[in-house]
Protein 1
Amino acid sequence: MNQLVIANEVYRSRLLVGTGKYQNFDETAKALDASGAEIVTVAIRRVNLGQNANEPNLLDFLPKNRYKLLPNTAGCYSAEEAVRTLRLARELLDGHKLVKLEVLGDPNTLFPNVRETLKAAEILVAEGFDVMVYTSDDPIVAREFESMGCCAIMPLASLIGSGMGILNPWNLQLIIEQSKIPVLVDAGVGTASDAVVAMELGCDGVLTNSAIAMAKQPVLMAAAMKQAVEAGRAAYVAGRMPKRFYSAVPSSPSEGVISSGRL
C-alpha cells in the first residue's frame, strides 16, 4: 500500500491525533505513543509550547524528533486571528511550515466559516505555509482550496466533538474522487468503526482528538484507532465485493453438486 505524502514528506501512519482534552500531558504522551501517529496537532491558542514560560510545556513530554507537530488555529473566528496565530506558531517552532487551518463560524456548532477560511488560506499559502485546511464537506469549496495551493483537504465527518461519525459519505466521496491532494477526515469521529468507514471510502487519513481523549480509556482507544485506520486502508486497497440485493450468491461453487434427482 502506498504511503501518505503531505507537502512532499512521507508518513507511514495515516492516523493524525490531537493533543487537547486529556487529563494531563502524561496521558497525552501515552495516548500518542499507542496511536502510532507521526503527525500530532497542537492548538496554539490553548496548548503551551513555550509561549507561557511559567506553565508546563507540552514539548517536554514528547520524545524529541518523533512527531511532526501540526499547529492549528482552533478557537479562531476570523481570517485575521488565524493568520496571526500561525505566524506565532512559525516563530515558536523555528520556521515551521506545515499547519492546520480552521476558522470557525460560531461557538455553538464549531462549523467552519468557509469565507474566512478561504481568505486566510490565500494569505498563508502566499507566505509559504503548507496549509492543511479544515472545511465543510462541499466538493466545490474543496476544489477552491486545492486550486489555491493547499496541501491537504480536511472535510468534517460531522460537527467537531460530536462523535456522530460520517453523516454524508456521498459528499465525501465526491471530494475524494476529484482531489489530487490528500483528503483526511477531520471532526466527528467517535469510535474506531468511524475511522474504518472513512478509510474504506478512500480517505487518505483520519484526524481525531475527542474520540481518544474523551474515551473511558484513552490509551486503549488510541490503539484501537491505529488498528482501525490500518484495517480500513487495507480493505479499501483490497476492494470490497460488489453489493447484490435480492440475489443470493453461494460462497461455495455449485457446479458438480449432487442433486436429489440423481439419488
Protein 2
Amino acid sequence: MGPEDAVRLAIEVAEDGLNAGEMPIGALVLRGDQVVAKDFTHERALGRRIVHADLMAMLEADRSIGFSRSSLPLTLVVNLEPCLMCMGAAITLGVDRVWFGLESPNDGAVELLEQWRPPVEQPFFRRPQEILGGIHRTAVQDQFARYATSSAPAGMREWAHGLSVQPIP
C-alpha cells in the first residue's frame, strides 16, 4: 500500500473520531502492506490526555507484534504530523516510515527529529528512514475546519482552526 492510499485510510479513521466528538486525528500502523492497528484520539471519551491516535495505534501494534521483527517495514500513518511523544514511541517501536497528511507547526516532531542524534550503541534506536508529509493535506484541513465549528473546548477549536487555514508550504 502506498502513501496516498494509507493516508486516505488514516483520514477515514479520523472521520470516525470526528463523528464520535473527538479531534479528527486518525492513525494506523502497517506491517508491510497489512494494517495491524488503527485508532483515533480518545481525549474527550476517556477524559485523558495521553490517548493520541498514533500512540493508541502503536500500542495495539506493539501488543500484536511484540518483540518479533520481520523484514517487513513498519509504517506509522497519521492524518496529522506526529507530536514529539508519538514520534518517540514510533522510534521505540522501530517504525521505518512515517506518512502523514498535514503538518502541525506548533507541536509536530519532524523538525525536532532532524536535530536528534541517535545513540550509536543502540543501532535499533534510530530515526525512521522515510518521512513523507503533505499527503491529502487539503482533506485533512477540511476535517480540522469542521472540528473548529464543533462543540469542542474553545482552545481546541482555535487550534483546529489554525491548522485548517495554515498556508501550504
Protein 3
Amino acid sequence: MDTTERTEQALAAERRKRELLEAADRVVLRDGPGASMNAIAAEAGITKPILYRHFGDKGGLYAALAKRHTDALLASLRAALDAPSERRARVEATLDTYLSAIEGAPQVYRFLMHPADAASPGEQGFDVGRHSAPLLRRLGEELAEVIAERVDLGSDSERLARVWGHGIVGMMHAAGDWWLGERPCSRAELVRDLADLLWGRLAAAGNREGGPGF
C-alpha cells in the first residue's frame, strides 16, 4: 500500500468516526446519561461490534464526545475572554458562555458530568469523578493560561494563575450544576452574583506589560 492509499484510508476512517460521533450526539441529546451503545449503533445504522471497533467501549466513545464538546466550549470561552470590552464585562461574558452552554444542551451536560445516573441495562455505569474530572481539569488549565497571559499577579504569578483557573472552573461547575437542577434564579442573576464573588483582587490586579490585557 502506497502513501496515497494510506492517507485516503486514514481520511476515510476519520470521516467515518466523525459521522459516528454525530450519531452519538443525536442520541445523547435525546437520552442524556441513558444513551446506550445499542441506541447509538442503531442511530448510525451499524452493529454494536462495529461501534466498539471504532471506540473500544462506551468509555472510549465518552472520551471522544467529551473532547468534541470541550473543544467547542473552550473556543467559545476564549472568544468571550478576548472580546474588546472592559474586564468586568468579559468576566460576565465568560461565565454566561459556560452557563449558556450547559443550559442549551442539558442532556449533553448530564451525559458528560453525570454518566452514572442512568446506566443502560447490561452496560456498566461510569465512575463520575473518573470521567468528568479530566474535563474540568482541562478547562482549569486553559483558563489558568489565559489569566497568566493577561494579568500581572507578581512573582508567584504562574502558581496563582493555576489556583485561580481551577478555582473559577470549580465554582462555575458547582454553581452551574446546582442552578441547572433547581433554577432558583435567572441565568443573568447567577452571572452577576458569581461575577460579584470574583470581583475582589482580580479587579485590582494590573495587566501584564506588553500583553493583550484582561
Protein 4
Amino acid sequence: MTYEYEAKTEKEAIELAAAELGLEKDQFDVEILESQKNSLFKKGYVKIRVHTADVVEHTDSGEFEGSVPKHRLFADPVPQDEFEKQLVEFIASVIRKMGYDVTVDIMFREEHKLGIKLSSSHSSILIGRKGKNLDALQLLANVYAGRLGHDEMRIILDTENYRIRREESLVRLAYTTADRVRNSRSSILLEPMNPFERRLIHTTLNEITDVETKSEGEGLYKQVRVYYKGIR
C-alpha cells in the first residue's frame, strides 16, 4: 500500500511514517513528492510517499530502490540457497528467451536486498533507453521473488555498472539544471524517471536555497520540475 506524509524535513517525514506504520525505516520505500525550503514568507516542508512491501507486484516501490553503493563489498557470485538458485535461473531464462546470451551472478547480499549482476555481450540492449529494459527485468525479478515467498526481499539488477553511472549522470544533470533555472529565473521539466531517480534529483537539490523541485504526472515514470523559488 502507499501512504503520504508531510513534515519539515525528509528525515522527520520518514520518522513520522515509521512511527505511524509501526515499521523500521528499511521496511518501506520512500519517494519524495515535493520539497520546499524555508523562506521569508513560506515555511519549508517535504512531502513524501511511502510504499510498503506488500505491493511489490504492482507498484513503484522497491523495484527501483537505490543503486549499487561504491563501497559495497561484493559477495560470492554462486547462489547460496534454493531461493537464490531459482531466482538466478528465472532471470537467465527470461533473458535467453529474449534471444540474448547472459551469465547471471550474485553481486551482493544484504538483510532485505539482493544484488544480481548480468554479464552479456548485449548489455546495452538489456539496459535499454534510460535503463527502462533493466528496470522491467528488475520488476519481473521482484515479482518472481514474491511468488517464491520472499516479499521482503528487494532485488537489484545491474550490468556494466549502469546503476552507478546513471546515478552520477543524474547528479550532474540536477546541478546543471539548477544553474540553468537560476540564470533564467524560470522552470525546467526533466525527462520521465522512476521513483529512485526522482528522489535522487530531489535530494541533490534540497540544499540549494533558491531552487525547488516537484514531481509531476501520473504512473511509474513521473517527471521532476525544477524551478526558481517563487516560480511554479
